[in-house]
Amino acid sequence: MLFTLNYIWVEVDALNSIDIMKMEHQNILRMLEVVRRYCLRVLKHEPVDYKDFYKIIDFVRNYADKHHHGKEETLLFNRMMDELGSLADKLVRHGMLVEHDLGRLYMSELEEALKKLESGDEDAKLDIIASAMGYVNLLKRHIDKEDNVIYKFAENNLKKDTLKLIDDESANFEKKAEGAEVQYKYLVMLSELEAKVNK
């Protein structure tokens, strides 16, 4: 299975689930930079193809959330809460899961603002920037916490058998997604948006 990281396609079959999640974070961070650049264009009254924001929403909902957060929530976080007690429960239930939901809210608000703009409400541009940048700032902090706290806590404290089970389930999850061309579709979309916004 191939995976892209900063335009380089690499083999990931030998990587563990947490390494793959960290690589996905790098792709999400790339999209966050795309979002920021689009918001700057709106702010500066430069030409913007607002349909691209719908592509961003699609990427966030189906790659960052359904694919990436889906693995975290169904494969990693639930095992952390089951096996590692109240500290893990607080970190996950009152931290990571709350932030996942907040990210979904920002995307809903962005979609609503885009529809208002389409109906002629020019003031909705402010809401587009606010919702999009709210998501950018949330996810940057969220990714930093996961990479440097949550994942390390899991790797250092979960039983080896549990980590192996997560790796096996993650590999099956990835293969199923690969069969539906999820990774390919959204990483190509990411590269295309990067090229467009960097012109």
From TrEMBL:
Protein's name in the database: Hemerythrin-like domain-containing protein
InterPro entries: Hemerythrin-like
Species this protein is from: Lutispora thermophila DSM 19022
Pfam families: Hemerythrin (PF01814)
Domain Hemerythrin-like: 17-153
Gene3D superfamilies, per the entry: nmb1532 protein domain like
A GO CC term attached to the entry: plasma membrane
